[in-house]
## 1
Amino acid sequence: MIRTLRCPLCHEALSLDDRAACCPRGHSFDRAREGYFNLLPVQNKNSLDPGDDADMVTARRAFLEAGYYAPFRDTLTGLVSVLRPGHLVDSGCGEGWYTEALARSAQATTAFDISKSAMRRAAKRTAAVTWLVASSNDIPLPDHCADALLAIFSPLAAAEAARVLMPGGALLVAAPGPQHLWELREALYEAVRPHQAEKWQEELQPQFLLHSEARVQFEINLADNAAVNQLLKMTPHYWRAARERRTRVEGLPSLVTQADFRILQFRRAS
């Protein structure tokens, strides 16, 4: 576990102990009973309770714990194990299913998410990780403190990632491949298009250089209605799709759909 963070109010160093995080200017943040620190100031929130709500977090946890995305997590774990980072940062970690596995390859791990509902679940997984409620737009970590930073289906602020990573550090970004959840999307929308490369790839230049890209594809067999609804509720499609089509999918007894992931590995320029 790391012992120094960055104060979200004044950006001075925060010293940690078992109960609180404090900076020289007197700002103090108590450790929640679940074990995390809330370092997301009220003035930096875009809503009263930002991020994924409790229902979405519950659905995602049940789906992930059932192992449907295990091949994807295994590939990520292999990539991180090769890096052997001294300090790994998981940006937008959700309920921590990926973090718990990835942290085994690092000497120290910090994971954060904007959702307090997700963090309450994540922090119960292991005390070996420093868990934070925080935003990727203002990461509460010192400059150049991390060897590797992950963004798995989560927002990414290029300038902040570059600030936190040391020169030559690895940035791993996981994004949907062209065919990701194709059959689910066919059931939800009148027309379906392949996922396109995100604009964030252009925004990473010139701070980051593309090092490698991996593609992970496999079939997901959701054998019962509960699994179908877990997948639906953990995706943004639950809110984007028309109610009539969403209701139809919610009633499906089963579904077979394609999982398609892209994992892009960048290096921070010196």
## 2
Amino acid sequence: MHIPKNTLYTYPDITIVCGPPEFSDDKIDTVINPSVIVEILSKSTRNYDKGEKFTLYRDIDSLKEYILIDTEKIHVEKHIRHADNSWQLTDYRSVEGYFTIDTVQISILLKDVYDGVRFE
């Protein structure tokens, strides 16, 4: 993925594009119009994904949702962009709960996200 406004090239863990994909060049391997980005947090990427990387992602006009999935505890953060370009954070912390990716109308159970995961 590429963000022309700030020149970042990055590899999100999951990217959802709604509508025809737009590419940075004729090789059609680098998308520039994601609607949803999901990052899986690890100890080494947590601070970058939650901070500077999210700041850079906000330069993507097509981005509507940014979802962070923690690997050290049951915790999903969902950021949704509003029409005024403000972002709203919602936390999900119950294994019995679920979150919805509103852009594509998909609900995901946290017990499915964390199935087989062992926490230290």
## 3
Amino acid sequence: MDYGTYQQFAKETFGGEFGNIELLVTAFTHRSYVNEHKKTVKEHNERLEFLGDAVLELVSTEYLYNNFPDPEGILTNWRSSLVRTESISAAAARCNFEPLLRLSRGEKRGTERAREQILANSFEAVIGALYLDQGYDAASKFITDNLLVTFDEILKTGSWMDPKSHLQEVVQSSEGFTPVYKVLAEEGPDHDKTFTVGVFVNDKLKGRGKGPSKQAGQQQAAEAALKKYKSS
């Protein structure tokens, strides 16, 4: 993939070319790609991701502070919902990041969850690249146009709540029950266990989740159950 492809993306997405196109190319370069192309590629996107994460948090915080008079705790929860992996990976997908990602052959065959994380990381890295190349205002406009515009929907659906709290609210309002979480299985040695957790409503299994802790498994189970409730 040549630099022209990335410049075309920059023109379509940011309204102009990058002064330093290497920054944008690096923003799409995963660590695994560098490992496969050590002779020709020297830098991956993790440093840009570190920078972009800080810019993203500042822009999101500024937006919420200027537009909502709510207390700190609520604003913090709202900001978390805006910048979580699921939100920013969805924004990256809408911007058609996928064809531009530079990944190893192994990562190209990775799981959906792994790809979601890669897209989220690249979104932050692109913000970092844009900030360095064109400044804070350009980065802020990109974040506003592609992420902050989703906030009304986040408020409407209640997805700013953590999955367990959200599920409890949905279930109690629609069925009058409280979700119950049960560990269905434990695998692996004590220092590296994986817990499979089920969430039950009126003794009916509504979702399963896996994680390195019971809490993580519960959150995934709640997410799975929420998807079922939304689709029903």
## 4
Amino acid sequence: MILPIYAYGQPVLKKVATDIAADYPNLEELITNMWETMYNAEGVGLAGPQIGLPIRLFILDSTQMEKEGEPFKGIKKVMINAQKIEETGAIKPYEEGCLSIPDVRGDVQRPEVVKIRYLDENFEEHIETFSELNARVIQHEYDHIDGVLFTEHLKPLKRRLVRRKLDKIKKGQIAREYRMKFVVQK
């Protein structure tokens, strides 16, 4: 089932998410719905807060970013209760966007390597190191479970330039190709 994606301005997007247990209600169905929702919106990642759930769960599929003849190898993973262990490497800019903030893009500076501990969908623990685009997608989704949006990483001038777009998103005054849930205006 395709779920609505919570838009910029929704309070759940600014909350630090909580860990979940293996007996979290309907977890398998939730993960299936998250995949369907993400693919429907043409995203490469989706976190619990983006569908209104303040839980430490995100999914990602960076295989969609692979290009013929290039060495990049994407990943497809479910990450539950993730904890960053270390970020290393050069800090590089890359243009990011977000399903919760449609039509807004901007360069975000992130370290090129992340080491992370997480549980998969079977609640088996993994400690892995990811680099470049895979690291970036993980860092972006990890920010969501920490209540941080990519726009907070933008340079001050760019933040001022997108402020009007953000206000329109908050009010639901945007065209989009997928279901969204906006802040209710009183």
